[in-house]
């Protein structure tokens, strides 16, 4: 005969035969804290299929248990602290067991799902590699031999770096809000859930100025037998190059 006022905690992916008695006791202890009125809340049975722990409540306290449970699930300030904490603890137990679950009220409605193991964050994938980035120095300064440096790339991304050595930091500081530079060193990367890699930090060991490269390129271009450096028509110049 089905007991009245029954609450059921279903552990999805488990079964009565695979649920150790010690774990059963822990789950029931948290259900007791959630429902309260321990003298009038009783264990019924473990239902077959996915292990479903069923308890039932005596009629005279059923309204109070229902109200207590509703407040705890809503996270109300009026809910007893142990009732609210029991929900987190149940989810923690499920996470430890690699399961998820749900709590059903006497009407058979799921009143709260427990993500359990499904709520565990993916392990971060990290790597380090020799890295070079190009950007403008927007911040540099510090008092020891590891100087914080921030560069802004052409894509607007801010790169957090650390310069090894005061002399190197002093040289790089000359480019504050100036020309773009390329810094190189050991980069520490993380892969986001979507698969994109992001640079967490870069230990800068060297740099090079890019402005000189452009000056050299422009000088070489001006020495070519074209009107490029003299402001001639670019399309016509390109056409001449193609025609030989």
TrEMBL record:
- Name the domain of life this protein comes from: Bacteria
Name recorded for this polypeptide: Uncharacterized protein
Which organism is the protein's source?
Halopseudomonas pachastrellae
Origin organism lineage: Bacteria, Pseudomonadati, Pseudomonadota, Gammaproteobacteria, Pseudomonadales
């Amino acid at each position: 005969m089905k007991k009245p006022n029954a609450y059921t905690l279903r552990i999805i992916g488990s079964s009565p035969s695979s649920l150790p008695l010690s774990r059963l006791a822990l789950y029931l202890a948290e259900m007791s804290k959630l429902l309260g009125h321990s003298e009038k809340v009783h264990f019924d049975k473990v239902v077959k299929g996915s292990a479903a722990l069923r308890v039932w409540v005596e009629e005279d306290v059923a309204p109070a248990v229902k109200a207590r449970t509703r407040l705890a699930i809503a996270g109300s300030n009026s809910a007893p602290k142990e009732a609210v904490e029991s929900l987190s603890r149940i989810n923690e137990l499920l996470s430890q067991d690699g399961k998820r679950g749900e709590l059903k009220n006497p009407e058979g409605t799921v009143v709260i799902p427990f993500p359990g193991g499904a709520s565990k964050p993916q392990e971060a994938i990290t790597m380090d590699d020799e890295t070079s980035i190009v950007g403008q120095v927007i911040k540099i300064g510090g008092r020891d031999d590891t100087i914080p440096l921030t560069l802004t790339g052409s894509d607007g991304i801010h790169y957090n770096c650390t310069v090894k050595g005061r002399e190197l930091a002093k040289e790089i500081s000359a480019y504050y809000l100036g020309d773009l530079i390329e810094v190189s060193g050991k980069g520490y990367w993380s892969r986001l859930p979507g698969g994109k890699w992001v640079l967490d930090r870069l230990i800068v060991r060297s740099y090079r100025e890019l402005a000189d490269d452009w000056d050299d390129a422009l000088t070489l271009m001006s020495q070519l037998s074209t009107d490029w450096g003299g402001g001639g028509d670019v399309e016509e110049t390109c056409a001449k190059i193609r025609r030989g």
